[in-house]
């Protein structure tokens, strides 16, 4: 068996960050062959990573990078918030974002196969898991690119736990730079207000029917308390989404308002000044589901008198352009992940079993 020098052990430790004694044992078992020792430690690290894989990773960070024509965002989860602040974890996040951006990958699966430091990203990630000592999951990745008629921007909150990307389509390429700030503001709105989908077209009839029952029940419950307190009651809507407001429904409501004004003795020549405001209020009162869950249906945080859709229409009119949101992505750390509840004794027992 060849003699293993301290310099070899030191070199292997610097290359793998594995414990000193593990490096020495790997070199001994591999006859001093450095490449084989690296692979040996990697395989050993992989086995440890697999053992950690059943532990829930629900902490972590969102990483985002935006340049002129491309935005890359990913979510990397760890088991604890403490590890998410670790320098090794931060380096992993930075490298992951760099590889995703430079390789132009658009999915987690594609990133796993991307080359990084002479190996696949998947192998690199498993090595990092062994080094950091916690289960780490690359959960989501999004990469959007702007065409000649699109303005792209994003927003990452200071705590790195929520980020959003928004792409605005327009007809005049000269307007792209003017719309980047609007895209950033809408992304900031999305980060704060948590819209689930872009617009009401994503809702199925079954979903709307189910949510309407829940929303009406919620409002009726609130009205019970408001009535007890002697305060004005909330409106119970007939509809909850713009998808329900068909042309026939809107036409019938407009006719109802005209009849109401006639009964009040209002002259018909002023109907055109009154009815648009009433219809706008009718739509607002009957699109509560859109206001909660859709980006375009929410009232803009920077101007709560207008929905995002109205802001786009207004800005488009100013520019003599037609604006629309062609893509929207929002990530928040751990959303949808069910955290495992374990007591300390059980966790210790699990670690030593």
Automatic annotation (TrEMBL):
Keyword Cytoplasm: yes
Region (Involved in Mg(2+) ion dislocation from EF-Tu): 80-83
Subcellular location: Cytoplasm
Domain Translation elongation factor EFTs/EF1B dimerisation residues, every copy: 71-335
Keywords tagged on the record: Cytoplasm, Elongation factor, Protein biosynthesis
GO terms of molecular function: translation elongation factor activity
Taxonomic superkingdom: Bacteria
Described purpose of this protein according to its UniProt entry: Associates with the EF-Tu.GDP complex and induces the exchange of GDP to GTP. It remains bound to the aminoacyl-tRNA.EF-Tu.GTP complex up to the GTP hydrolysis stage on the ribosome.
Family statement drawn from the similarity comment of this UniProt entry: Belongs to the EF-Ts family.
Name of the molecule in the record: Elongation factor Ts
Lineage: Bacteria, Pseudomonadati, Campylobacterota, Epsilonproteobacteria, Campylobacterales
């Amino acid at each position: 068996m060849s003699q293993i020098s301290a310099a070899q052990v030191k070199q292997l430790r610097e290359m793998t960050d594995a414990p000193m004694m593990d490096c020495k044992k790997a070199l001994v078992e591999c006859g001093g062959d450095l490449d084989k020792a690296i692979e040996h430690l990697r395989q050993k690290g992989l086995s440890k990573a697999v053992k950690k894989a059943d532990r829930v990773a629900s902490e972590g960070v969102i990483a985002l990078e935006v340049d002129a024509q491309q935005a890359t965002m990913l979510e990397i989860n760890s088991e604890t918030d403490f590890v998410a602040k670790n320098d090794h974890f931060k380096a992993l996040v930075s490298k992951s974002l760099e590889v995703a951006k430079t390789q132009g990958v658009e999915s987690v699966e594609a990133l796993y196969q991307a080359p990084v430091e002479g190996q696949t990203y998947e192998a690199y990630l498993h090595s990092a898991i062994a080094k950091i000592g916690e289960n780490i999951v690359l959960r989501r990745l999004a990469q959007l690119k702007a065409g000649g008629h699109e303005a792209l921007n994003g927003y990452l909150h200071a705590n790195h736990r929520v980020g959003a990307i928004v792409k605005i389509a327009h007809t005049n390429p000269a307007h792209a730079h003017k719309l980047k700030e609007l895209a950033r503001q809408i992304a900031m709105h999305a980060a704060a207000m948590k819209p689930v989908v872009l617009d009401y077209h994503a809702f199925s009839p079954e979903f709307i029917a189910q949510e309407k029952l829940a929303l009406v029940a919620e409002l009726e419950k609130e009205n019970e308390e408001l009535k007890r307190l002697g305060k004005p009651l909330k409106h119970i809507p007939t509809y909850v989404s713009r998808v329900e407001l068909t042309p026939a429904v809107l036409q019938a409501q407009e006719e109802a308002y005209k009849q109401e004004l006639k009964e009040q003795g209002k002259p018909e020549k002023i109907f055109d000044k009154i009815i648009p405001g009433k219809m706008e209020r009718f739509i607002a009162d009957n699109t509560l589901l859109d206001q909660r869950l859709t980006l375009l249906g929410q009232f803009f945080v920077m101007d709560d008198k207008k929905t995002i859709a109205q802001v786009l229409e207004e800005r488009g009119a100013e520019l003599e352009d037609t604006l629309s949101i062609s893509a929207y992505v929002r990530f928040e750390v751990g959303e949808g992940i069910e955290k495992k509840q374990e007591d300390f004794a059980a966790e210790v027992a699990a670690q030593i079993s």
